[in-house]
Write a structure and sequence with these properties.
By secondary structure, the protein is mostly helical. A three-stranded antiparallel beta sheet has the order 1-3-2. It has a two-stranded antiparallel sheet with strand order 4-5. The longest helix is centred in the middle third of the chain and has 31 residues. The relative contact order is 0.08.
C-alpha cells in the first residue's frame, strides 16, 4: 500500500488507488457514494463528483475482481464497501495478523499511500496523516517486540538488521540505540557496540543538547566501556578508550 511505480493493471486512476487504500483501512462497512465523492472530489458539484466516482469504481471493480476476488468490493446503488474476512489481503494487514512478517516494511522505509497527499483537500489529507501515524505506531511496536524476541533468543544477525532499521526510523530513541548495542555485543562485535554508543552520544549532544540516560550508560559499562560521570565531572577509568574509537 506504499508508493508504486505506475498503477497495477488494470487500474488506471490514481484516485482509484487512493479509494482502495481508504476502503482497505475502513473495511467491512459500507460508505455512502455521496460521502466518498465529496471526499475525493471536494471542488466539484455533487453530480460531477458522483459521475467521477462511478467511473473510478468501474475500473477499481475490475482490479479488485482480478486481485482480491469477485465479492470483496461490494458496490451498491448508494454505497460502497470493502468486505473481507480474517485472511490478510494487504501488507498493512500483517501488522495485526503476523507482526513479525511486517517488519520488512520498516526496513524498506514504506509510507502508507506515499505520494497521495495531493489527491484531494484537507479532509482527505487529515485522514491520511492520522492513518499514517496509527500505522507507524503499530509498525514500530511490532518491530520492537520482534527485535526484543530476537535478542532474547540470540538471533544476533537479524536482530542487528532490525535494530538498525528501528534506529534509522527514530534516531533519538535510546531504547533503539540499546537494541543495536546489544545485538552487536551479542554477536561478539564489542567494538561496533561501543561505536554505536559513541555515535548516539554525539547525536544527542549536537542535536538536543542532552547526554545518554543512565540505562544506556550502564549498558555501555556492561559491554566493556566506561562513561563520564556527568554529575561530578569525573571520568571513570577507561573512558578515553571507549570514546576514542575510530
Amino acid at each position: 500500500m506504499g508508493q508504486i511505480d505506475g498503477l497495477p493493471a488494470p487500474l488506471i486512476y490514481r484516485k482509484g488507488w487512493a479509494l482502495l487504500g481508504y476502503l482497505a483501512m475502513e473495511s467491512n462497512r459500507m460508505h455512502s457514494r455521496a460521502a466518498l465523492a465529496a471526499l475525493l472530489w471536494p471542488t466539484l458539484g455533487e453530480t460531477s463528483a458522483l459521475t467521477n466516482l462511478r467511473q473510478v469504481l468501474s475500473n477499481l471493480n475490475r482490479f479488485c475482481c482480478m486481485a482480491l476476488g469477485a465479492d470483496v468490493l461490494r458496490i451498491e446503488r448508494s454505497a460502497v464497501g470493502l468486505m473481507r474476512g480474517s485472511e490478510p489481503m494487504f501488507d498493512i494487514d500483517l501488522l495485526r495478523l503476523a507482526p513479525c512478517q511486517s517488519v520488512y516494511l520498516l526496513a524498506e522505509q514504506r509510507v502508507f499511500m506515499d505520494g497521495m497527499e495531493d489527491i484531494a483537500d484537507s479532509n482527505f489529507q487529515s485522514w491520511l496523516e492520522a492513518t499514517r501515524q496509527m500505522l507507524e505506531a503499530q509498525l514500530m511496536g511490532a518491530a520492537e517486540r520482534c527485535c526484543d524476541e530476537m535478542l532474547e533468543t540470540s538471533r544476533w544477525e537479524p536482530a542487528i538488521q532490525l535494530a538498525r532499521a528501528l534506529s534509522q526510523r527514530d534516531p533519538w530513541n535510546e531504547a533503539h540505540a540499546r537494541r543495536v548495542m546489544r545485538a552487536h555485543a551479542g554477536s561478539g562485535m564489542r567494538t561496533a557496540a561501543l561505536k554505536v554508543y559513541q555515535r548516539f552520544e554525539s547525536l544527542l549532544r549536537s542535536e538536543l543538547g542532552l547526554n545518554p540516560g543512565k540505562e544506556t550508560r550502564q549498558l555501555l559499562e556492561q559491554i566493556g566501556g566506561t562513561v563520564l560521570n556527568w554529575e561530578s565531572g569525573l571520568r571513570s577509568p577507561g573512558y578515553e578508550t571507549a570514546h576514542t574509537l575510530a
